[in-house]
Amino acid sequence: MKELLRSTDPTVIAFATALLDGEEIASFPVDVHMSVLEGSIGILPRRLMVREGDLTRAQRVMRDNNIEISERP
Protein backbone atom coordinates (compact mmCIF):
# COMPACT_ATOMS: atom_id res chain seq x y z
CA MET A 1 0.00 0.00 0.00
CA LYS A 2 1.18 3.49 -0.85
CA GLU A 3 0.06 6.80 0.60
CA LEU A 4 -2.01 8.77 -1.88
CA LEU A 5 -2.98 11.74 0.22
CA ARG A 6 -2.87 13.12 3.74
CA SER A 7 -5.38 15.62 5.12
CA THR A 8 -6.83 16.91 8.37
CA ASP A 9 -10.12 17.53 6.53
CA PRO A 10 -12.31 14.39 6.68
CA THR A 11 -14.42 15.64 3.77
CA VAL A 12 -11.37 15.52 1.47
CA ILE A 13 -10.79 11.88 2.39
CA ALA A 14 -14.47 11.06 1.80
CA PHE A 15 -14.52 12.85 -1.58
CA ALA A 16 -11.28 11.21 -2.70
CA THR A 17 -12.61 7.79 -1.67
CA ALA A 18 -15.79 8.36 -3.68
CA LEU A 19 -13.79 9.40 -6.73
CA LEU A 20 -11.57 6.34 -6.47
CA ASP A 21 -14.58 4.05 -6.02
CA GLY A 22 -16.01 5.53 -9.22
CA GLU A 23 -12.81 4.56 -11.04
CA GLU A 24 -12.82 1.10 -9.40
CA ILE A 25 -9.60 1.81 -7.52
CA ALA A 26 -9.51 0.22 -4.06
CA SER A 27 -8.50 2.56 -1.26
CA PHE A 28 -8.04 2.27 2.50
CA PRO A 29 -8.25 5.20 4.93
CA VAL A 30 -5.88 5.01 7.90
CA ASP A 31 -5.54 7.07 11.08
CA VAL A 32 -9.31 7.69 11.12
CA HIS A 33 -9.62 6.92 14.82
CA MET A 34 -6.78 9.21 15.92
CA SER A 35 -9.38 11.68 17.24
CA VAL A 36 -9.46 9.53 20.38
CA LEU A 37 -5.85 10.54 21.06
CA GLU A 38 -6.10 14.15 19.92
CA GLY A 39 -9.39 14.94 21.66
CA SER A 40 -11.38 15.50 18.43
CA ILE A 41 -9.64 18.78 17.56
CA GLY A 42 -8.57 17.63 14.10
CA ILE A 43 -4.83 18.34 14.19
CA LEU A 44 -3.60 14.87 13.22
CA PRO A 45 -3.87 14.13 9.50
CA ARG A 46 -5.66 11.11 8.12
CA ARG A 47 -4.14 9.20 5.21
CA LEU A 48 -5.64 7.47 2.21
CA MET A 49 -3.75 4.46 0.91
CA VAL A 50 -3.98 2.65 -2.45
CA ARG A 51 -2.30 -0.41 -3.93
CA GLU A 52 1.10 0.29 -5.41
CA GLY A 53 -0.09 -0.80 -8.86
CA ASP A 54 -2.99 1.69 -8.71
CA LEU A 55 -0.97 4.65 -7.43
CA THR A 56 -0.35 6.35 -10.79
CA ARG A 57 -4.00 6.09 -11.84
CA ALA A 58 -5.16 7.28 -8.42
CA GLN A 59 -2.80 10.28 -8.54
CA ARG A 60 -4.18 11.21 -11.95
CA VAL A 61 -7.75 11.07 -10.62
CA MET A 62 -6.78 13.34 -7.70
CA ARG A 63 -5.00 15.84 -9.95
CA ASP A 64 -7.95 15.92 -12.37
CA ASN A 65 -10.18 16.89 -9.43
CA ASN A 66 -7.77 19.42 -7.88
CA ILE A 67 -7.05 17.37 -4.78
CA GLU A 68 -3.54 17.80 -3.42
CA ILE A 69 -1.71 14.47 -3.20
CA SER A 70 1.22 13.29 -1.13
CA GLU A 71 4.54 13.53 -2.94
CA ARG A 72 6.46 10.95 -0.94
CA PRO A 73 8.88 8.42 -2.41
From TrEMBL:
Residues 1-64 form the DUF2007 domain. This is DUF2007 domain-containing protein. SUPFAM superfamilies: GlnB-like (SSF54913). It comes from the Bacteria. Coiled coil: none annotated. Pfam families: DUF2007.
